[in-house]
Design goal:
Blueprint (H helix, E strand, L loop, with lengths): L8 E2 L2 E2 L4 H16 L3 H11 L4 H16 L1 H9 L11 H16 L4 H16 L1 H14 L4 H8 L7 H8 L4 H10 L4 H11 L5 E5 L6 H6 L3 E2 L6 E4 L8 H4 L3 E3 L2 H12 L8 E4 L6 H12 L3 E6 L2 H11 L11 E6 L12 E7 L14 H4 L2 H21 E11 L8 H8 L5 E4 L17 E2 L2 H4 L5 E7 L1
Parallel strand pairs: 7-8, 7-10, 8-9, 10-11
Antiparallel strand pairs: 1-2, 3-5, 3-6, 4-5, 11-14, 12-14, 13-14
Helix pairs in contact: 1-2, 1-3, 1-5, 3-5, 4-5, 5-6, 5-7, 6-7, 9-10, 14-15, 18-19
Length: about 475
């Protein structure tokens, strides 16, 4: 499926590069050189070049596949280039990665993948590098994907982590973190890694009190598996739906919905009128919680430290930062969650959706696996502990705190909760599983770890604590 040739001339002659491949290149290069977010950069690139339909689907697969398999492709390219890859111009290396994905990961004939990559290299790097691209990609095309994986991956028997890292295109430290979270099972680790390489469907939330799942289903979505507010859009642009445009629904993974629903379902002792979202940006969980709170006559305070994210929270809630919001919303404020700007023991329910590595959403953000590093985990752990401490301080005796991260890394999950509970005797873990009725395979508890390969959701972690 080759996209249409570009009609945009360059330098007085017709360009040999189609707009779909140009869009993919600019996104991959922006990720490589500016740490751009692929989903945002791709949407902008497709709009700018007016790439739609089948060509947009081609550009999307080319972009995401290249970013997802970058580490594995670099191992292959290192055997086809006569110099270290870090000595190549970044533009040339990105063209080689794009070409390799077309040869090994897409149904593009090898001669077409090589020829279009040479044209792309000539356009973005000059005539000299295009000869290198031609020679290297011809070497890549001499073997199929399975032959290359057998060549570059270590033996599973001698090095299972190294083998899975290459075969499933994840950094070794991520492979080992998944294994630890899966009780040492290499077989299930392989299943989790494979699930990360499957594109995630677009999941929507119909905000309680504002939208209905039936409206989303009538627009072409399917009902969700677990959340009564979820709908899955198999095709099309979610932002083209009227319910999304008018703020009655939003894009939100079902795992994220389940975290908010579990907090709302957990039993509390006494009153239930004040709820807190301590790290509310960009606002999806806050909007869901606000709708649930309104149904009970409660109100939610949404807190976000970063002003630009706080504005997204306010938009999701239908209010302005620092202003009393609509039904179910106490307000939206810009504040540091580790330094509460309210009296202790004020709230009945508190959500801490803590900043994390995002290793649980790698199927949605393919570039994140190569962007994160092990050193960041320790830094985030300290912040996560501080936020959870503040959350326990903020909830009243008899109230409940939900600690959640979109990561299965033990340092960001159970070890955070353990670190807090070992320093205080006024809080205790409670079993989170009864607050997620209908969700299968939740393990031995009391905490819950969702997985793409088990539940079809992002790998969200949830722990519930009650203040004594």
């Amino acid at each position: 499926m080759a996209p249409a040739r570009s009609r945009r001339p360059q330098g007085g002659r017709r360009s040999g590069v189609d707009d779909a491949r140009l869009a993919a290149y600019h996104v991959v290069h922006a990720v490589s050189t500016r740490d751009a977010y692929a989903n945002l950069a791709l949407a902008a690139a497709l709009r700018e070049r007016e790439v739609t339909g089948r060509d947009a689907a081609f550009a999307t697969e080319l972009t995401h596949g290249t970013l997802r398999w970058r580490g594995t492709y670099d191992e292959i390219l290192a055997r086809c280039v006569d110099r270290p890859l870090d000595r190549l111009d970044t533009a040339v290396l990105d063209v080689l990665r794009l070409g390799t994905h077309q040869v090994l990961g897409m149904r593009v004939p090898a001669h077409a993948a090589v020829a279009t990559s040479v044209d792309l290299a000539r356009r973005v790097a000059g005539r000299g590098p295009s000869a290198l691209v031609n020679a290297v990609l011809r070497r890549v095309a001499r073997r199929d994907r399975e032959d290359w994986l057998a060549e570059v991956a270590p033996s599973y028997d001698s090095d299972p982590a190294g083998h899975l890292a290459i075969v499933h295109a994840h950094p070794r430290w991520v492979v080992e973190a998944f294994r630890d979270a899966l009780a040492g099972s290499w077989a299930e680790t392989a299943a989790a890694l494979a699930a990360d390489n499957e594109p995630a469907p677009v999941t929507l939330t119909a905000w309680p009190g504002r939208g209905e799942v039936a409206e989303l289903v009538s627009a072409g979505a399917d009902p969700g598996r677990y959340s009564p507010y979820a709908a899955v859009l198999r095709h099309g642009d979610p932002h083209g739906l009227t319910a999304v445009q008018q703020g009655r629904a939003g894009v939100q993974d079902e795992g994220s919905q389940l975290v908010a629903l579990a907090l709302a379902a957990a039993p509390v002792e006494g009153r239930d009128t004040r709820w807190l979202d301590l790290c509310a940006g960009p606002g999806g969980k806050a909007a869901l919680l606000a709708g649930l709170a309104a149904e009970r006559g409660a109100r939610l305070l949404a807190v976000e430290r970063q002003p630009h994210r706080a504005s997204l929270v306010a938009r999701a809630l239908g209010c302005r930062p620092g202003v009393l919001g609509p039904s179910g919303v106490l307000g939206s404020v810009i504040a540091d969650g580790t330094r509460p700007a309210w009296r202790a023991a004020t709230f009945d329910r508190v959500l801490v959706d803590a900043p994390c590595t995002g290793l649980g959403a790698l199927r949605r953000r393919p570039e994140a696996r190569w962007r994160r590093s092990p050193g960041e985990v320790g830094e985030l752990h300290e912040l996560q502990v501080a936020l959870l401490q503040a959350a326990v301080d903020s909830v009243r005796p008899g109230g409940v705190v939900a600690y959640a991260t979109c990561s299965p890394h033990l340092t960001e999950t159970r070890q955070v909760v353990d670190a807090v509970l070992t320093t205080r005797d006024d809080a205790e873990r409670i079993d989170a599983r009864p607050s997620l009725p209908g969700v299968p395979d939740l393990g031995d508890g009391p905490d819950v770890q969702l997985w793409p390969h088990r539940h079809g959701t992002d790998a969200m972690y949830l722990a519930l604590l009650r203040r004594r």
